[in-house]
Amino acid sequence: MRIYVAGQLSNRETQPDDRSPSTVVIDYIKNVHVMCKVAKMLQTRGYAPYVPALDFLMGVVNGNLGEEDYRGVGIEFLKVCDAVFVISMSSGVIRELEIAKELGLPVYYTLAEVPNVSV
Question: What is the CATH number of domain 2-113?
Fold first, then answer.
């Protein structure tokens, strides 16, 4: 089963606007780290996790992508997932949850809620 791992990336909504660029990058990396750790836990339960935050690597290669370029890819993956796991909330996650609701996808907020699947 495919599961979409949603979470806050930039801390833009919960941190002051006067953060240094390096602090913003460090926060982003920490958030991606947490998402990848959760994805690995979901994988051990039999899921095929998708971490949309890893799309930043497309930007490393292409160099000139905008925010919507990244969101567009993630949303297309969300549309073919079987469930969503939410790590933390943000305006982006709220948009993802609206789509998940339209698609009738189950949404989990804790690992205890996530059923194991057979592989």
Answer: 3.40.50
